[in-house]
Design goal:
By secondary structure, this protein is of the alpha+beta class. It is 38% helix and 30% strand. It has helices at residues 4-27, 61-74, and strands spanning 33-40, 43-48, 56-58, 78-83, 89-95. Strands 3-2-1-4-5 form a five-stranded mixed beta sheet, sandwiched between helices. It is globular.
Length: 99
């Protein structure tokens, strides 16, 4: 007997991997910006990779993520990396240029 939950889960995994591959392909070979949301002593910061100072600072992570998502979407193709308070990566999102 086939376990429908496993089949559906596997299909969802394939779809997610395909979407990630398509997004990565749209970034490949072209210049793209990478933005990070990181914890600081005074709150949370949105930082463009390689920049000397933060693009913006926020009192809480929710506000920082909202600002970073808007910034990354406005500068597509780009990537957003959201960090936990210990600086480990919590989540990544790719913003591809729409065809």
């Amino acid at each position: 007997m086939v376990d429908k939950k496993k089949v559906i889960g596997a299909a969802a995994g394939v779809a997610a991997a395909t979407a990630a591959g398509v997004a990565a392909a749209k970034l490949k070979g072209g210049k793209h910006s990478i933005y990070h949301v990181r914890s600081r002593d005074d709150g949370w910061a949105v930082e463009a990779q390689g920049a000397k100072q933060a693009s913006s600072t926020h009192k809480n992570k929710r506000q920082a993520v909202k600002a970073a998502r808007a910034l990354a979407a406005d500068h597509a193709p780009s990537q957003l990396v959201i960090h936990r308070a210990d600086d480990s990566v919590q989540k990544e999102h790719t913003y591809a240029v729409e065809d």
